[in-house]
Amino acid sequence: xxxxxxxxxxxxxxxxxxxxxxxxxxxxxxxxxxxxxxxxxxxxxxxxxxxxxxxxxxxxxxxxxxxxxxxxxxxxxxxxxxxxxxxxxxxxxxxxxxxxxxxxxxxxxxxxxxxxxxxxxxxxxxxxxxxxxxxxxxxxxxxxxxxx
Length: 148
What we know:
The chain is of the alpha/beta class. The protein has one domain: Rhodanese-like domain (Oxidized Rhodanese, domain 1). It has helices spanning 3-13, 26-38, 44-53, 65-69, 84-87, 89-92, 112-123, 136-141; strands at residues 40-42, 57-61, 77-78, 103-107, 129-132. A five-stranded parallel sheet has the order 1-5-4-2-3. The protein is globular, with a radius of gyration of 15 Å.
């Protein structure tokens, strides 16, 4: 089991995610692991570097609005995972107006939702998308920028 898959399981089996999961079916774990193998992932250090360099990148927090309101990474916009297919287009364009060169980084509390959302966005045709697999608690504990 990869460290990211282990972190995913930890998230799903504890209260570190928004929703409590008393028992997570094997199908869920398998779905996340399969999605993780098919998307590009980055870690906290990479995202910090992107933010510090002021690259032209879109940072999307895929958590629920209530989670986003408690604090988020600077410059991140909130598009919950459940509506990503419908709401991302106003930020990346569509059809001939789509900006395929813009890098898009998706994050959540600890990675699983970001991985699944990245897979969805990638399946819709965006090529330059990355799932950020990190723990927001560790981001804050490191004293990295966090805003409300």
